[in-house]
Amino acid sequence: MSLVKPADRDVLATAAVDSIVVASDQMARGSSAYYWDRGRAWTYAVVQAVTNSEDPAIRSLGEDLVADPTDPERYFALRSALMNTDLDESAAAAIYNLAWQAECNSRLGFQLGRHYQRGEPPVLSDELQSLPPGQPLHDTSQAEVLIVIPFQDRGAGRHRLRNLLACLLSLRDQSCPRESYQVTVVESDQEARWGDVIRPRADHYIFGFKPGAFNKSWTVNVGVAHTPGQPEVICILDADVLVDREFVERNAARFQRPGTGGHLTYRNMLCLDAPATSRAIRDRLQQCEPQASPDHFRGFLLRRPPGCCIWVRSAAFHRIGGMDERYEGWGGEDYDFAHRLDLDAPLDSYDDWLLHMHHPPSSFIRTDGGLVDIAPLSWRPTQPIGRLDRFAPDRQPDVEG
């Protein structure tokens, strides 16, 4: 009996079919091209072992899943066969060993609920605009928590706008008192595209003029610098995150523990596919459920990524100079911020669900994991962070509360 490798066939069979889906589904690479590329030697080895199996049933079911990795029936059929077929012990051991090696070396995993339906009709942004905007904040003086959401949507399908609306509506449906937290959305773009849609659903809307590549760091710093009040805690939240009803209360309470400087709410980020995203939004916002049901999830797990949702004490955020505004495009800035924060203050991590709603890949997304030519941990700003005139020196700032 191994001390470090599981013997449970359920665990090992799941690892095998998950590896096949990760290797075969284009969405896996879209979830993180860097993670996918670094793990494909191990996931492809599982594909080869299953599709070349001496057992004709296993081989056929494996080929079927490779041909259509989005079909849940093919997934569960192969998983069941691997668990229950009387494979020759050496053949089974070879597949299971490769599957476990993939689980140990790939930073991409897979999640599939038993009741997932890939025919789920899509939820569009117009559908969410018709929902009540929720209770606004009338007094910022009592808000101990500031949630800053950086945002941009230049896409024709308005997928990111749909996701932002779902995020904002879920933040209006929280278990804690409304006056205890405030939400600021910073739209960074060459023009203010979505202010009229955002304003009724956020406590503060800020437009920051920034043509070209998206700069998340500057956008976040703008939100922190230009939101009224003196919050004790800042939450930097991706606009594509769908939060549960206890989200604010649960994470704010974690700062009551002595020696807490900040935390990531999650270990793994679940990038939902399009049907699962629509179902999760309907569960949470139209059915008014406290959280979306994992039984309907399908998506790819990014293991231990930083930055999609990080909570930090305001004092620590300002002490390290906020986020590094030298980063351009998508990638790298989250690692830098998390590392600098971890050096300065105690940084915890928890294992909550982190639901990332589906959208087409950004045109500026990096495929190298954010390996840019910026010296690590080198951000030491000499001017105030979050200056609204950083990219538009002759333009009047547009700030609204």
Order of helices and strands: HHHHHHEHEHEHEHEEHEEHEEHHEEE
Principal-axis shape equals globular
Order of strands, main sheet, comes to: 11-7-10-5-2-3-4-13
Count every helix, treating DSSP H or I runs of 4 or more residues as helices.
14
Mean pLDDT: 93
Characteristics of this structure?
globular, Spore Coat Polysaccharide Biosynthesis Protein SpsA, Chain A, 401 residues, 13 strands, alpha/beta
Question: What does this molecule look like?
Answer:
The chain is of the alpha/beta class. The chain folds into 2 domains: about 10-110, no CATH class; about 125-400, Spore Coat Polysaccharide Biosynthesis Protein SpsA, Chain A. The chain contains 14 helices and 13 strands. An 8-stranded mixed β-sheet has the order 11-7-10-5-2-3-4-13, sandwiched between helices. Strands 1-9-8-12-6 form a 5-stranded mixed β-sheet. Helix 8 links the parallel strand 2 and strand 3 (about 180-190). Helix 1 crosses helix 6 and helix 3 (about 35-50) packs antiparallel against helix 6. The longest helix is centred in the N-terminal third of the chain and has 19 residues, at about 35-50.
